[in-house]
Amino acid sequence: MEGAMCSALVPHAFNQARSEMKCVNYIVKDEILFREVEGTGFRDFIHDLQPRFMIPNRKKVVKGVWDLYLAEKTKIMSVLSDQRVSITTDTWTSIQNINYIVVTAHFMDHEWKLHKRIINSVKITSYKDDDIERCLDVCLNSWGIKKVFSITVDNARANNGAVKYMAKKLKSLNTLMLDGKYLRMSSSGISIGVALRVSTKLVFIGNVLGPRWKLAFLKISLCNLRAEASKVEAIGDEVKSALLTLYNEYRGVGNLGPLQILDEGDDDGLEDEFDGDDAHSQMLGKMLLKRKEEQQMGISNEVDKYFDPFENPRNKNFNLLDWWKGNQSIYPILSKVAKDIFAIPSSTVASENAFSLGKKIVDPFRSSQTPKMIEALVCTHDWLRADKFNLYKEPTDEKIAFYKELEEIQAMAAKAQGGNAQLSNSTSILLPSTP
């Protein structure tokens, strides 16, 4: 018994700064009032736990909250800098009768884990489209977000102008996909009328990107809705065509990064090496040419290749995101389409959930807080409670080339240094010894 208790003991060194940050985390996570740190009961409790801890006053806690907000925002910005995100936005009014707009970013990291983060909960003058446009613009600029796949909004008329404005803004940055065809997502239901609604089409594409059923499940579902056979086939063709359009868009502007299969520069050197008259060189040259043709065909035909095989639908342990993560090398471009499609929220619920949080934070006891502090509390509370993401990033082709160049320079320097050392030794041998 004593041995078990001893093995559970771990060394602990008291640190005032770390303890203050833990106190700030506690206040933000559990929505505690700032004045609680000055309460006699709280101070007695903390003093009994650690007499050496100097409890920060209310003013110091406020500064700690703001510093924590800035530190967490910097971490998230480093992840979002090269991500294409989908956002949801909605508005609410506080107990102070102040209007707020909430913006939530949805994305998948390189590990194919879905994340959402409230990136803004800011004061807005009114719910008119001009004010919403301005807030969205300021929000995305402050976060350095230039690649937006979709914006999910409710059906309020003011949102139409805001989305059109963002389409023009993103187009000027040359990051708008398909001239904004899929930018606006409505939170209303699915429609299979004469023309497929854009949001419905993306939902269908997301369904088709499930490798166990692909188009089959979509067609069966439409038949169960008593759609005509000709209509079912037409919708299937339309969805496949839309997927191919997205694929071609990503193929034209997307950066494959470390997943790129075909590297023309490396193969050019190999062709020179195998350019000989002997049978061995000719055979290797033909194999190289064949490999390049097969790779090019695979890259240009990922969509058709994807629709050919089916995964076992009876596999109970099947995980959609794990499957796509494991097949990125087979579908390097289509997997990027899938990642962005799967990150699209189907409604504005994510932003609406911030309303209840905001109402807790902006209660009668916090009604004197500034809009900036409200934003810091709402956002940081959301960030601290969210699933953590891996901050590691795969190196780009440019960085890999840079590192290789550094290694070559270091190797040359080491070789030169070794030659100098050898020359120095030889000289010392030839020189007469000093008496």
H/E series:
HHHHEEEHEHEHHHHHHHHHHH
Low-confidence stretches: 188-195, 253-271
- Average per-residue pLDDT, rounded, comes to 78
Widest sheet: strand order? 3-2-1-4-5
Largest sheet: 5 strands, mixed
Count of DSSP H/I helices: 17
What is the terminal separation in angstroms?
Answer: 75 Å
Strand percentage, roughly?
A: 5-15%
Helix content: 55-70%
Derived from helix and strand composition plus strand pairing, the structural class reads: alpha/beta
User: What is the strand tally?
Assistant: 5
In oligomeric terms, what are we looking at?
single chain
Shape: globular
Rg measurement, Å: 29 Å
Walk me through the structure.
Helices cover 57% and strands 9% of the residues. The protein is α/β, with parallel strands linked by helices and 435 residues long. α4 crosses α16, α7 (198-208) crosses α9 and α8 runs antiparallel to α9 (229-253). It holds the Pfam family Dimer_Tnp_hAT. Residues 302-384 form the HAT C-terminal dimerisation domain. It is found in: Nucleus. Its main location: nucleus.
